[in-house]
Amino acid sequence: MDRKPLKIGDLTARIPVIQGGMGVGISLSHLAGSVAANGGVGILSAAQIGFREPDFEEHPKEANLRAIQSQLAKARALAGGGIVGFNIMVATKDYADYVKAAVKAGADLIISGAGLPEKLPEYVKGSNTKIAPIVSTEKAAKVMLRIWKRKYNVVPDLLVIEGPKAGGHLGFHREQLEMFTDETYAQEVKKILAVVREIEADSHKNIPVVLAGGIYDRADMDRALALGVDGVQMGTRFVTTYECDADLSYKQAYIDCKKEQIGIVKSPVGMPGRAIFNTFIKHGSHKIDKKCLHCLEHCNPKEIPYCITRALIAAAKGNLDEALLFCGANAWKAEKLEHVADIMEELK
Asked: Which Gene3D superfamilies does this one have (predicted)?
């Protein structure tokens, strides 16, 4: 049976699948454009998106803002009219400037987490760009939706619920990660949906909801949709595609890893994240002997064990011994490289 399309305002994705934004350099124009071309929503990660620009080391912000425009243009050329947007972390240094650059470039959608994007409506005002906050708990959903309603009299065009099995930085304390099971988090999702329905009734506007975290195949998608959400967001499954922008070695690390090699790490800025336990993680810290690249707002280079930008760039380039290999809980399920078109056909 075919899926219902995902409607985000006046945008429609034929298949209710959003490809999660993965940085640094994992989901850029090739992956996002390919997902959009095959009926889903393609998302570029704005995190240090200009890392391949020749002046990145000297002028990282300028390189990133330039790459936002060029990468979106390349994705659009592949997308064939499909939906293409950005994931921009609230924790990003100069967050407002990155959002405004994405809007100016013509992004269809901005998904924003790693903090509550309280001022996001202000930064996109007057544009056609849709906005979607990421929340992980009922409490966060209540706070986020009420702030937007009170300060701007707006509701999200889309809400992303990111569960405890997601990859990269997570919106939970370590204790919460240990507390939630599949069953208890399913109840949390239903509580978040109840909050959304209340806001919908009050505002007379539909708010589609997608669920992320640990969704790898059609069976996972079916379980998610059965909870009452309108679609799913998937990141890990798309890493091991020919179209993914990461180096082949990064993709092979997913294919080679075992379930017991995936776990929770503490990022340099104190946030828990999920990654593959490789040589880099086991050795812990390394000397920071290069200039700061100004990635995160609350990062102090004098206090952190390693530079997360450089560790993630190493991953994208395939330098695995120096890399932080972020991944979702189900990365161990990857067995081979596949095409985006085949994944989307399976999920359809």
From this structure: Aldolase class I
Q: Do 122 and 264 share a domain, yes or no? A: no
The tens digit of pLDDT for each residue in 288-347 reads 556 777 776 666 777 677 788 888 999 999 999 889 999 999 999 999 999 999 999 999
Q: Which domain holds residue 311?
A: 248-332
DSSP conformation letters of 155-218: --S-EEEE-TT-SEE-SS-HHHHHH--HHHHHHHHHHHHHHHHHHHHHHT----EEEESS--SH
Give the C-alpha distances (Å, rounded to integers) separating 336 from 167, 252, 253.
Answer: 19, 8, 11
- 137 and 272 share one domain: no
CATH number (domain holding residue 132):
3.20.20.70
Q: Which residues of the chain are under the pLDDT cut of 50?
A: 1
- 187 lies in the same domain as 285: no
Rounded to whole angstroms, the Cα distance separating 296 from 312 reads 13
Bridge partners, residue 159, by sequence: 209
Parallel, antiparallel, or unpaired for β 272-276 and 262-266?
Answer: antiparallel
pLDDT tens digits, one per residue of 114-143: 889 999 999 999 999 999 999 999 999 999
- B/e letters for 53-74, b = 16+ CB within 10 Å, e = fewer, are beebeeebbebbbbbbeebbeb
